[in-house]
Amino acid sequence: MTQDPAAIAAKAARFKKLYTAAVYDILDEMGLPNQCMDLGIRALDRSMRVAGPAFTVACSADVRTDEEYDLEEVKTFTFFRRMYPGCVVLISAAGERNSGHWGELMSTGSKSKGATGVVVDGGIRDGNILMSMEDWPVFTRYLSPIESRRRTRISGIEVPIAVTGTLTAQIRVDPGDWIFGDMDGVLVIPADKVDAVLARAEEIMGIENRSRNEIRAGGDVADVYAKYGRL
């Protein structure tokens, strides 16, 4: 998949000026209400924000030994070479809820290839070290000291995956779909809808900023709502 790092960075910067509630409202208006990942998946720190195209990692409850494992790029860790500037590593742990599926060294390897954060529908290890990494947002369901090897396996790289949803059991994520997360939660934005969602969300943010300023200046809430139609 060809990616333009400058275009990704510019789009991510625009997203990070927004917040997930405003973007969710646009998805809802567009008939995509089920794009919010499970609310149990949260940032390690409330100030963390992430935005970028998903670099998908699928896990399964495969407990074969390394010698029996058939994904050579995972066995040899060469899959990091497929990461690209601006991507967000998105891991689906297939319902395994005990071990840590990603950690500090995996994060360091991802960041060195240009990834800008990680979102795990599962667990993270090395929380203290991850918290100290500069410009590395981490969103996860839980923290765990337990090694994932012999408990789960990476079964696919840059393949369609399913993550747990809030309003639906699962959300399909294709490689390159956009991920946007802040303290409220994490959204999945289909790649072919990203530009339209972003433009509309920026428009709504402008309206909300005007409403906020008028209310702060003493405007009547009902009058401001009547004027702008948002509150």
Would you spell out the secondary-structure blueprint of this structure?
Layout lengths: L4 H11 L4 H10 L12 E2 L6 E11 L11 H4 L12 E5 L11 H9 L5 E7 L2 H6 L5 E6 L9 E5 L3 E4 L5 E4 L4 E5 L2 E5 L4 H23 L4 H8 L3
Parallel strand pairs: 2-3, 3-4, 4-5
Antiparallel strand pairs: 1-5, 2-6, 2-9, 7-8, 9-10
Write a structural description:
It contains 7 helices and 10 strands. It has helices spanning 5-15, 20-29, 72-75, 104-112, 127-132, 194-216, 221-228, and strands spanning 42-43, 50-60, 88-92, 118-124, 138-143, 153-157, 161-164, 170-173, 178-182, 185-189. The strands form 2 sheets. Strands 1, 2, 3, 4, 5, 6, 9 and 10 form an 8-stranded mixed beta sheet that branches. It has a two-stranded antiparallel sheet with strand order 7-8. β2 (50-60), α3 and β3 (88-92) form a beta-alpha-beta unit. The protein starts with a helix and ends with a helix. The mean pLDDT is 90.
